Amino acid sequence: MGDRSMLSKSEHQTVPLSVLLKRELANEKIERPELSHGQASQSKKGEDFTLLKTECQRVLGDGITTYSVFGLLDGHNGSAAAIYSKENLLNNILGAIPADLNRDEWVAALPRALVAGFVKTDKDFQDRAQTSGTTVTFVIIEGWVVTVASVGDSCCVLESAEGGIYYLSADHRLESNEEERERITSSGGEVGRLNTGGGTEIGPLRCWPGGLCLSRSIGDMDVGEFIVPVPYVKQVKLSSAGGRLIISSDGVWDALPAEKAFDCCRGMPADAAAAQIVKEALEVKGLRDDTTCIVVDIQPPEKPTPPLPPPKKQGKGVFKSMFRKKPSESSSHTEKEFSEPDVVEELFEEGSASLSERLDTKYPVCNMFKLFVCAVCQVEMKPGEGISIHVSSTNSKKLRPWDGPFLCSSCQEKKEAMEGKRPSGDGRYSSGSD
């Protein structure tokens, strides 16, 4: 961006804006990483699905502001929810991003749009009254910024070119997530193991009714409304040395720790790496479950060969602390340029299940709230029809119900159900929708 200000000082008015913009886009093109990806799968039930879309255009027709999407959907109790989500989730997310944003605003709007898109997909699928469910791990890569939204237990892990390992998704298994257990019991659900009758309990912790061992998913209309589709979202910016992502279903992670997954395919191109990870997982556990892996390499453009093994990694306990938080806006551009370039920078992280927290934006995007459009399903509402997400919210910072964003009445009903506040206790159909 420096060359714009220099030009305007020395010879202002001589360079048309369109030329400057073209020049800026050309610079951007050079800085953008090259992506290569591969996937591999061994199927037992046929309920794992992947979505791989590269070079999607952010602004139609400019061919430069592209992003890529990688999704992994691990269905259960049938594959309908996984297939429906694969077909509709991306459009629902994009529908929640305001038009006319520049690139930085678009990236900043993603976390909120992901939440709205996940909830809308779940709501629309449940209107079909089919009973299956699915985990979703959804990765959007724009330049060096990787944004991951996830419900369930398919995980996305990053190894940066510098050798650090970063977990970009949460595990929503009741067995391992105490916070989620508490959320479900306080919303009126029960958490316990399968009872075999003679006082013995077996297997992982599950949520009752329904017996699902995940606390978040898309679909699952038969297992109680506190199984929510609100995703954990993490957004990070890689250094320009890049890194490798592994997105896998629990069939891989139940068998291999992250370090082993990265080590076993070191130096291989992405497609061979994905196949190798699946092979290693099956050697450990056998084929007990659908086992799927997507590997994405994010590399500087001038690196045609797979990266060499990175330096020895630090111990496991420091992974979390290796993130560099987003620098404060006041730090000047040059400072940013020279302060530790080889670190993965954390731009955003939020895992709360509360819609009022997740849809309340912290971004200075002026047209983020279209006043008369539902923040989840994007339906247009008449003035005065929308219900503020702060209504009935215990969030003391914001108790003004006229503050947006707003929900339509059916999305408000869904929000209350997810929070265990639906007035009658008889499940999905208490609103008389059957």
Please summarize what this structure is.
The chain is of the alpha+beta class. Helices cover 28% and strands 24% of the residues. GO terms for molecular function: metal ion binding; protein serine/threonine phosphatase activity.
Strand content: 15-25%
Largest sheet: 8 strands, mixed
Radius of gyration: 23 Å
Multimerization state: single chain
Please state the overall shape, judged from the principal axes of the Cα atoms.
globular
Task: Give the helices and strands as they follow along the chain.
Answer: HHEEEHHEEEEHEEEEEHHHEEHEHEEH
Report, as a whole number of angstroms, the end-to-end distance: 57 Å
Describe the structure.
Residues 301-312 have a biased composition (Pro residues). Its cofactor is Mn(2+); Mg(2+). Residues 326-339, 414-425 have a biased composition (Basic and acidic residues). Pfam families: PP2C. The protein is α+β, with helices and mostly antiparallel strands and 434 residues long. Helices cover 28% and strands 24% of the residues. The protein contains 11 helices and 17 strands. The protein has helices at residues 2-11, 17-31, 80-95, 103-126, 178-186, 250-253, 258-264, 270-285, 333-338, 355-359, 409-418; strands at residues 34-42, 48-57, 66-76, 133-142, 145-151, 155-160, 165-167, 190-195, 201-208, 218-219, 232-237, 243-248, 291-299, 324-325, 345-350, 387-388, 406-407. Strands 2, 3, 4, 5, 10, 11, 14 and 15 form an 8-stranded mixed sheet that branches. A 5-stranded antiparallel sheet has the order 1-13-12-6-7. The protein has a two-stranded antiparallel sheet with strand order 8-9. A hairpin with a 5-residue loop joins strand 8 and strand 9 (201-208). The longest helix has 24 residues, at 103-126. The chain is globular and about 80 Å long. The N and C termini lie far apart (57 Å). Mean pLDDT is 81; it is low at 1-12, 313-321, 328-340, 363-368 and 424-434.
